[in-house]
Amino acid sequence: MAAPSPGDTAGAALAGAALAGADGRGPRIRVNQLGCLPGVPAHATLVTGDQEPLPWTLERDGAVLTRGMTSPRGHDASAGLDVHTIDVGPVGVEGDGFMIRADGATSDPFAIRGDLYEVLARDAVRFFHLQRSGVEIGPEVAGEEYARPAGHVAGSAHGGDTRVPCLPAGRAVTADGVDLYDGWTDDHVLDVSGGWYDAGDQGKYVVNGGIAVAQLLGVCEWVGAAVELPAGLERALRDEARWELEWLLRMQVPAGQRYAGLAHHKVADERWTPIPTLPHEDPQPRHLHRPSTAAALNLAAAAAQGARVFAAEDPEFATRLLAVARSAHAAALRHPDLLAPNTNVLANGGSGPYDDTDLEDEWYWAAVELYVATGEQQHLDALRANGCHVGGPVDVFADIDWQRVGGLARLHLALVPSGLPQADADAARASVVDAADAILAVQAAQPFGHPYAPPDGRYDWGSNGLLLNQLTVLGAAWALTGEARLRDGLAQGMDYVLGRNALGISYVTGHGARSAHNQHSRWYAHQADPSLPCPPPGSLSGGPNSATPDPVSAALVAGLPAQQCFVDDIGAYGVNELTINWNAPLAQVSALLAGVLTPRRQPAPAAAATRRPTPA
Fold first, then answer.
1. pLDDT tens-place string over residues 492-514
2. Taking a C-beta distance cutoff of 8 angstroms, is the pair 16, 520 a contact?
3. Residue-wise pLDDT tens digits, 45-89
4. φ/ψ of residue 525, rounded to 5
C-alpha cells in the first residue's frame, strides 16, 4: 500500500491516463474477456436504455449457436449505466472466437475451454516471484524485460535489509509533536532480507505478508484437496510461501529485547522513493518499525499454518515454524494491546501504516491456526470464546482483507482436517455455506454479476481484492458441498474482474482484450520510463475506489459512480496499485477455477486426523 511520492502526480501521468468514460469502455456488451468454462452458465451485460427485452445470439464463425432475450435491469447506480443482462446458460462446445450479439452491438471474442484459467493461475503465482526482495530476478522467470539485480542486499545502500536498525527515537513525531511510538526505539539490528515487496513500493509489512502467504498456503492445503492443481503450480506455491515465511521469521524481535517474541510491524524506507526506482537503486535508509501485537498474531497464524503444510516435506522447517508460532502467540499474550498507529500522518513517512485498532479477528485467526496445527485445548477454548467464532457478534465474512482476517480463519477451521469436535466442525461448515448463500443473493442483484455491493454504494480501497475474497468464500462452500450453484457463482464473479464491468476493462494485466497495464509501481514503470516494463501478466489492479484518494484519480474520476472511479495510470495509487494481498486471492480463485470442472475429492471430515509437525 503505497502513498504519494515524487513523480506520482506529474503532468506526464495525467497525460497518460486512460479516462473512465464512453471513450474507454469498449464494446457495449461486457463479457469476461477470457471466456467461460464449458458446461458452466455464461453471462454478459448489455449497456442500453431500451425498456423492453431484446434478442441476443451466441455466434461462432458466423453460425448462431444459441439465442434468447435479454433481461432489462434498469439503471445500475454503481455503474452509472442503464443495462440488460444476458444469461446464455451452459455451453457445451469448446473453442475460441465466440461472440455475443445484441442491439447492434458485438462483444469481445472469447473462449470456452476447460483449461481457461490455467495460465492465469500460473501468472498470478509467478507475480510473487517477481516481487521477491533480496534476490536477482533472472530472464528465465518472465523474460528479459523483467530481469533485474537483487535489491536490498549487503552491497546496497545502507546495507540493504541485511543489517536494519530500529527506527531512532523521535522519527515518528507528528507536526504537532505527538510521538506515535511513545519514544520507542531499540538497539538491535536484524537481517530481514528476503520476502516479497508488498506493493508498488519497497516496503515489507508483516500483516500484509501474513494474509498473502496464508492464502497461497491455502491453495496447497484446501484448494489442492478439492481440485487437481495445474501441473507445477503447487511446487511454485510452496517455493513462494517458504520465501515469505522465512522472512516473517526474521521479523521476530530477538530474545533479551523489550518486546521479545513479538514481530516488527514493518521494514521500510525512511522516505518515499520516486517513480521509477528499481529495488537495487533504492538510496533510502531502512528501519524496523515498532513491534505490534497484530504483527505477532499474523506471524503466529501464518507460521502455524506453514508448519502444517511443510510437515511432510520438511519436518525440521515445520518444527521451527511451530516453535515461532508458539513464541509469537505467547508474546502477544504478554503485550495484548501494542497497536500500530497510522503513520500516514507523518510527513513523507516512506511506508504504508497498516494500522488496526481491533485485533479480535487476529486473536481468532491465531487460535484457529494453532489449534488446527496442534489440537491443544487451550487454543480450542480461545477460539470458542472469541467474538469471531460461530454464533459470535462479528460478521467475519464481510470484507475479508489484511485488517479483517476472521473470515480466513473460519474457512480454514471448516476446511482443514483437524481434531475439531464434530458439533464445532458442523457449525463452522454450516456458517461457510450460509455466508455463501448470502453472497449469492448479493450477486443475483448485481447486473454485472459480481458479489460486491457495499451498503453505502461506495467502493473501498482494493475493491477488486475484497470482491475476490468474497469469491474465496463461494469456492470454500463449493469445496464443502460440491453444489453447482456455488461453482457457477464463483465463475460468474470472476467475470467482473476480467471485463464484465462498467468500464469494460480486465483488471488483470495481460489477460483480456483490454487490461490494466499501468499499475502503480516503482519498477514496473513503463508509463514513467519506456525502458522499463509494464507490470507482468497476472498482476491485479486494486480497482475502483470511490474515495479517489490520490491526485490523479481525484482529478479525473472523483464523484463518478463507484465502478467508474478508476483510471489506469501509474500515479493513481488509490485505485490502481498492485499488492501481494490482492494477488493472493486472485491466485486462489483462479487455481480453483482451473480445476473446478474435475473435482479431486472433498476435504476429509473435520474430526479426522491431520499430519502435524513435531512439537518443539
1. 999 999 999 999 999 999 999 99
2. no
3. 999 999 999 999 999 999 999 999 999 999 999 999 999 999 999
4. -115, 45
CB 402 within 8 A of CB 211: yes
Other CB atoms closer than 10 Å to residue 379's CB: what's the count? 20
The rounded mean pLDDT for the chain is: 94
What is the rounded CA–CA span in Å between residue 561 and residue 565? 7
| Domain(s) of CATH 2.60.40.10: residues in the chain | 35-114
Helix (H, G, I), strand (E, B) or coil at 492: helix
Query: What is the DSSP-derived secondary structure letter of residue 180?
Result: T
Among 212, 290, 222, residue whose Cα is nearest residue 245 = 212
Reference 107, options 24, 26, 193, 210; nearest CA is: 26
pLDDT in tens, 118-140: 999 999 999 999 999 999 999 99
Q: CATH 1.50.10.10 residue ranges in the chain?
A: 118-503+577-595
Per CATH, the number for 118-503+577-595 is: 1.50.10.10
Q: Which residue has the cell 499501468?
A: 518
Can you give the C-alpha Rg of the chain in angstroms?
24
Tell me the longest C-alpha to C-alpha distance in the chain: 75
Q: What interhelical angle do 580-595 and 233-250 show, nearest 10?
A: 150
Tell me the three cell numbers of residue 412: 480454514
Which three-class secondary structure string do you get for 91-160? CCCCEEEEEEEECCEECCCEEECCCCCHHHHHHHHHHHHHCECCCCECHHHHCHHHCECCCCCCCCHHHC
Quote the CA–CA distance of 229 and 115 in Å, as a whole number: 11
Collapsing DSSP to helix, strand or coil, 514 comes out as coil
Enter the CATH code of domain 35-114.
2.60.40.10
**What 3-state DSSP class applies to 269?**
strand
The CA-atom distances, in angstroms, between 492 and each of 7, 37, 207, 500, 589 are 38, 10, 30, 9, 12
Instruction: Provide the Cα torsion 237, 241, 242, 248; round to 10°.
Output: 170
Q: Which residues are catalytic?
A: 201, 520, 568, 577
Q: Whole-prediction pTM value?
A: 0.95
Nearest to 404 by CA among 352, 361, 364: 361
Confidence of residue 614 (pLDDT cuts 50, 70, 90): low
Q: Say how far apart CA 340 and CA 206 lie, in whole Å.
A: 11
Kindly report, residue by residue over 195-230, the tens digit of the pLDDT: 999 999 999 999 999 999 999 999 999 999 999 999
556-594 burial, b if ≥16 CB within 10 A, otherwise e?
Answer: bbeebbbbbbbbbbbbbbbbbbbbbbbbbbbbbbbbbbb
For 162-175, letters b (16+ CB in 10 Å) and e give bebbbbeeebbeee
209 residue type, one letter: G
Q: Report helix, strand or coil for 22.
A: helix
Distance CA 585, CA 590 (A): 8
